């Protein structure tokens, strides 16, 4: 984990961000099912945080300002390697949290092919560390997935969708106070934040040149608070073939798909018949979801653009299978214990929501 400068748009100055292996988003880790790997996570970040830290928040009182720990979201991993929020560590492991035991994480990869993602998980500052750039994708592959003849190689595209806001100098903006401000606490945590700019794979409103053929899009909602309801400007349908932890049993034809923060979708879209067109991937999810304000059609209502070329030597033998896999369904009657958990939103002793 390093602090780096990266150009997020060709008209922007370089923006200071945090990244795994010096990249935002972090590199895609590709693993094979049932072939374990070990990853040593190293914190080389500065001691001062890039964003405003509220030291009255649980986990941030009497602890170092910059702490990290990595969670593999969706991974079936040993508890000690799951990124417990209090297993944090500072630069070069000089200080560690009460749940810390190792900086080397073992990932068994003993699950179906899927797109997972890894991200920071430190108590009290997860939202800030992820906003700063600490997130990346993790693919698990297997023989069955390869046998389906899905679009692959340069026709399999990861899309990490995030919202951000920027200061005039191109630096990341994150509010230091809610509205109205909390008296006597500065910086103060905000209950949620929606950026006014959309990034995909670390680029502001990018475009992708595509061929008139099928593509597999591996989509992650990597935003802190924002939902996305995605559709194409052409109104064309596409096929969802997978979700958070792998393939669906059957492909589903859809025209829109809704993703909550951290949620993933695996889809196939066919651009044949759209030669020469510029197709927008659009968002119409309100913020907050589902009863908030609609997105601005000129900014947060747009995700990216696909520029479809002409069919010179295009050969597409990939498929959209109807049957994808067999899922062993859990029976509700097999549960041995029922737990009721309440989710509440309240004000703390400082007056922060």
UniProtKB/TrEMBL annotation:
Domain Plastocyanin-like: 14-51, 62-144
Record-given protein name: Multicopper oxidase
PANTHER family linked: BILIRUBIN OXIDASE (PTHR48267:SF1), CUPREDOXIN SUPERFAMILY PROTEIN (PTHR48267)
Pfam families assigned to the protein according to its UniProt record, in alphabetical order: Cu-oxidase_3
MF (Gene Ontology): copper ion binding
SUPFAM superfamilies: Cupredoxins
Superkingdom of the organism of origin: Bacteria
Species of the source: Caldanaerobius fijiensis DSM 17918
Similarity field: Belongs to the multicopper oxidase family.
């Amino acid at each position: 984990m390093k602090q780096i400068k990266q150009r997020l748009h060709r008209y922007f100055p370089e923006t200071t961000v945090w990244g795994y292996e010096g990249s935002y988003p972090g590199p895609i880790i590709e693993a094979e099912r049932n072939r374990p790997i070990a990853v040593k996570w190293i914190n080389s970040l500065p001691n001062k945080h890039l964003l405003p830290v509220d030291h009255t928040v649980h986990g941030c009182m009497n602890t170092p300002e910059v702490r990290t720990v990595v969670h593999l979201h969706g991974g079936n991993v040993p508890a000690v390697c799951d990124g417990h929020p209090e297993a944090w560590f500072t630069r070069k492991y000089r200080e560690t949290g009460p749940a810390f035991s190792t900086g080397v994480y073992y990932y068994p990869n003993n699950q179906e092919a899927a797109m997972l993602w890894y991200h920071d998980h430190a108590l009290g500052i997860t939202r800030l560390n992820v906003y700063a750039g600490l997130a990346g994708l993790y693919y698990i592959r297997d023989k069955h997935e390869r046998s389906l003849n899905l679009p692959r190689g340069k026709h399999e595209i990861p899309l990490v969708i995030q919202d951000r806001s920027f200061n005039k100098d191109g630096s990341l903006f994150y509010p230091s106070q809610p509205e109205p401000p909390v008296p006597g606490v500065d910086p103060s945590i905000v209950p949620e934040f929606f950026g006014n700019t959309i990034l995909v794979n670390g680029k502001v409103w990018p475009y992708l040149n595509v061929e008139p053929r099928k593509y597999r899009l591996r989509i992650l909602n990597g935003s802190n608070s924002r939902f996305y309801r995605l559709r194409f400007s052409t109104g064309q349908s596409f096929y969802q073939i997978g979700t958070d932890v792998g393939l669906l049993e059957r492909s589903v034809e859809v025209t829109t798909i809704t993703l909550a923060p951290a949620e993933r979708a695996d889809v196939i879209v066919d651009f044949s018949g759209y030669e020469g067109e510029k197709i927008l991937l659009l968002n119409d999810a309100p913020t907050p979801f589902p009863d908030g304000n609609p997105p601005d059609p000129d900014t947060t209502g747009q995700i990216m653009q696909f520029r479809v070329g002409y069919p010179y030597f295009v050969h597409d033998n990939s498929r959209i299978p109807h049957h994808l896999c067999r899922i062993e369904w859990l029976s509700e009657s097999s549960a041995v214990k029922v737990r009721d958990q309440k989710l509440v939103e309240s004000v703390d002793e400082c007056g922060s929501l």
